[in-house]
Specification:
The chain has 297 residues and is mostly helical. The protein is built from 13 helices and two strands. A two-stranded antiparallel sheet has the order 1-2. Strand 1 and strand 2 form a beta hairpin.
């Protein structure tokens, strides 16, 4: 009887979550998979109306066979290799600095570093596009007056420009996560390390960092997933004058262009599903790899 009441209470408490999860996750994903299996074709040599026909995996084949879609994954690879190490190392270094005994005005710097994350992504991108635009930006003018010439919209400058925007948005946010994890470390462990003669660097690298390993893994996992969804920053940069960022620069932009510019919803759905599968695969690899490393440690 008691077990039945416990089961009933758990079902009542978990019911709203599963309902919302089904409505906002399961059904949209299922609809996207269903949509990716169909395509619209015109009948009557182009003079008739369009009809939706079952195409099987043709949309997936078309996406994978499109050079623009494949190059989008190449852009994501370069972005991840450039952005993720800078974000993790930078956020961790700032958190360790704020957690050290030498830090002053911790609250002020926490707030100052976190504030950029409070700015909506599209507003942040617009701000930086202004700062990247020649004849408008005081930053570009100052660089040019110092003899430094750099085109933020060029093929070689577009990726670093977007990485800079993402770092500005997310560095402080992840720093707060690492700082909170550092604050949860038992102070007696750190005091024991000091008594044993460990310096500040040795304590930080050999004690603090290993103890917040779970936070590092979590941030790395979420950063990888977020990086695969890169969309807002390049979309805004695409509107810049002479920008090298095309409308299919990333897989997300490819799906957006296919859906809302070419009205090919089947292709857009297939591209989205392929991107989701890539994110799921990378998440599995990261969790499996870090899990094995944790057991060995």
């Amino acid at each position: 009887m008691k077990r039945a009441r416990t089961t009933r209470a758990a079902a009542i408490l978990l019911g709203p979550f599963f309902v919302l999860f089904t409505l906002v996750m399961v059904l949209p994903i299922g609809y996207a998979v269903w949509l990716s299996l169909f395509t619209e074709k015109q009948s009557g040599l182009g003079f008739g109306g369009t009809e939706t026909v079952f195409s099987g995996l043709d949309n997936y084949t078309a996406a994978l066979g499109d050079r623009a879609f494949r190059e989008g994954f190449g852009v994501l690879l370069g972005y991840c290799l450039f952005y993720i190490p800078l974000l993790l190392v930078g956020a961790l270094a700032l958190a360790l600095l704020l957690d050290s005994t030498l830090a002053r005005a911790r609250r002020f710097f926490q707030l100052a570093l976190f504030l950029p994350h409070a700015v909506p992504g599209i507003i942040a991108a617009l701000i930086w596009v202004y700062l990247y635009t020649p004849q408008l930006s005081p930053v570009v003018s100052a660089m040019e007056s110092g003899g430094i010439g750099f085109d933020f919209f060029s093929p070689g400058g577009a990726l670093p420009s977007i990485v800079n925007i993402a770092l500005w948005e997310w560095l402080g946010y992840n720093m707060v996560i690492f700082y909170a994890a550092l604050q949860a470390i038992d102070r007696s462990v750190l005091e024991a390390a000091t008594v044993d003669g460990a310096g500040a660097w040795r304590t930080a690298l050999s004690i603090k960092v290993p103890l917040i390993r779970s936070s590092l893994v979590m941030v790395a996992l979420f950063t990888i997933i977020g990086s695969l969804q890169l969309f807002t920053e390049p979309l805004i940069l695409n509107k810049g004058t002479g920008s090298a960022v095309s409308s299919t620069w990333t897989p997300n932009m490819y799906a957006y262009t296919a859906a809302f510019e070419r009205n090919d919803y089947g292709l857009a759905a297939a591209a989205s599903i392929l991107l989701a599968l890539t994110a799921a695969l990378l998440s599995f690899v990261v969790t499996r790899f870090t899990g094995r490393k944790g057991k060995k440690a």
